[in-house]
Amino acid sequence: GAVVSQHPSRVICKSGTSVKIECRSLDFQATTMFWYRQFPKQSLMLMATSNEGSKATYEQGVEKDKFLINHASLTLSTLTVTSAHPEDSSFYICSAQKSGANVLTFGAGSRLTVL
Amino acid sequence: AQSVTQLGSHVSVSEGALVLLRCNYSSSVPPYLFWYVQYPNQGLQLLLKYTSAATLVKGINGFEAEFKKSETSFHLTKPSAHMSDAAEYFCAVSTNQAGTALIFGKGTTLSVSS
């Protein structure tokens, strides 16, 4: 089956530093990947749509300069939280759409804690 | 525009009892509807999805959901709850069959007691 891996699963960083989260499709190619953010006891909110080889499309209210998304290959998308602050602490989840298929697979998520 | 409302943030049932998790949607176009389950510290797993082929959709782990257009509902049911069903359940809506750009409900926590 389709597997999406996120790394790291947990990360703690100091305020002001940048953190990179990777999302990999392990056994399929993904033209499109999606990044979500989930606050405790709340739903997932779509942050951006990442297309291989092009700029990401951000949802309204999401700062593109703060949440840098790069989708350099068909199996890897990265989310970099720049100059992180405590309010950026959250659970970040990616999903990947298999190229040419109506299948979406979610990663296990990455929990970011900013001190 | 699309939106999803999950009635009841927390549902508690006894093992063996019926599970009913409610979901109502709003959509200006024919919707594609999904139910996902999330176990602690894990990603989302697709339970089932409605793609207009059949109004009663059967999913994994014995779950099923019925699309009722007149009621704009897509409630999730399971005849007999198991302890392993305890998790967070999310209803979601999309404008496409793949379920990209999903709009999620706030989720319902299901607790199962023995």
Structure report:
The complex is a heterodimer of chains A (115) and B (114). By secondary structure, chain A is an all-beta fold. Chain A contains no helices and eleven strands. In chain A, 0% of the residues lie in helices and 56% in strands. In chain A, strands 2, 4, 5, 6, 9, 10 and 11 form a seven-stranded mixed β-sheet that branches. In chain A, strands 1-3-8-7 form a four-stranded antiparallel β-sheet, with no helix packed on it. The model of chain A has no long low-confidence stretch (mean pLDDT 91). Chain B has 114 residues and is mainly beta. In chain B, strands 2, 4, 5, 9, 10 and 11 form a six-stranded mixed β-sheet that branches. Chain B is globular, with a radius of gyration of 13 Å. The mean pLDDT of chain B is 92. The A-B interface holds A 4, 6, 9, 32, 34, 41-46, 49, 93, 95, 97, 101-104, 106-109, 111 and B 9, 36, 41-46, 90, 96-107.
Describe the secondary-structure layout:
The complex is a heterodimer of chains A (115) and B (114).
Chain A: E1 4-7, E2 10-13, E3 19-25, E4 30-38, E5 44-51, E6 57-58, E7 67-73, E8 76-81, E9 90-98, E10 104-106, E11 110-114
Parallel strand pairs in A: 2-11
Antiparallel strand pairs in A: 1-3, 3-8, 4-5, 4-9, 5-6, 7-8, 9-10, 9-11
Chain B: E1 2-7, E2 10-14, E3 19-27, E4 32-38, E5 44-50, E6 56-58, E7 64-68, E8 73-78, E9 87-94, E10 103-104, E11 108-113
Parallel strand pairs in B: 2-11
Antiparallel strand pairs in B: 1-3, 3-8, 4-5, 4-9, 6-7, 7-8, 9-10, 9-11
